[in-house]
Fold this sequence. Notes:
The chain is an alpha/beta fold. It folds into 3 domains: 213 residues, Alpha/Beta hydrolase fold, catalytic domain (Rossmann fold), CATH 3.40.50; 56 residues, no CATH class; 42 residues, no CATH class. 38% of the residues lie in helices and 22% in strands. The N terminus is likely disordered.
Amino acid sequence: xxxxxxxxxxxxxxxxxxxxxxxxxxxxxxxxxxxxxxxxxxxxxxxxxxxxxxxxxxxxxxxxxxxxxxxxxxxxxxxxxxxxxxxxxxxxxxxxxxxxxxxxxxxxxxxxxxxxxxxxxxxxxxxxxxxxxxxxxxxxxxxxxxxxxxxxxxxxxxxxxxxxxxxxxxxxxxxxxxxxxxxxxxxxxxxxxxxxxxxxxxxxxxxxxxxxxxxxxxxxxxxxxxxxxxxxxxxxxxxxxxxxxxxxxxxxxxxxxxxxxxxxxxxxxxxxxxxxxxxxxxxxxxxxxxxxxxxxxxxxxxxxxxxxxxxxxxxxxxxxxxxxxxxxxxxxxxxxxxxxxxxxxxxxxxxxxxxxxxxxxxxxxxxx
Length: 368
């Protein structure tokens, strides 16, 4: 038997084994799936799914926020939550309180309590760096949450198919006259004390919907808190904007405006996926890969920076970290706090200034 033959018999199985290992490594990782129910601090029960990689610690965690008339299991966020888990992230996708296609009667700003529940649940389960991912109108929710809370646990933000300002979106699709007519009708109903009354609203490519006057004004009115351009200017985490070039509902030009407005973010990237529609229905793997690569970069960079600290269990009233030369913050104490008119309680560490703000909002707090 020749030496060449012996070497071939040794090397060929070895090469085959290496190829099999590489192929196995390229396959999506196994994930666990858990259905959950959470109650927000204002007493609303909601549901969702948690995906987690099996057999290894998560490389990161992500809370995914769906868009208009969607839910935790459909659309781009519903599919992305599992795709990111297969890539090593623990994810939570939760219903917002105005999910699916029923009448919309809540205020836009109330969605932040749903996001708070999702973020708190992730923080309870893992110490992995956390990101917020919003899709479609969910991008406005994510940006409002971050602008209001300055939640230091959020290390990065991903905005998928962001439609921009809701009033401007309607003007682009229907013209200013029709858009103003709906808004003025809602404002008149509210002025007459009929803010909960339902209106039939034409959403063009999205069909018709029932909005309460309160809901419409909170979403499109001149004092709305849903304006993404103002909110992204207050975001201090890295931002990724992803658009499809075949999206008929969200134009990449909006992404360019958002990028220009994100003046406090240390990094803002805009990616356009050629041929993708609003839900990335034929580009789901590409969407997940783009987000995975970007998160790998920014979370690795963030890990090299000093710790940003962690906000309280309920971060809705959290403040940005003070500069190094700022006066020392008041000492913090651990308290058991009940939200207004709710029997549930939360163990929270608060300084005296933040505690005063909680008490002004009707919370009842006692030392633990």
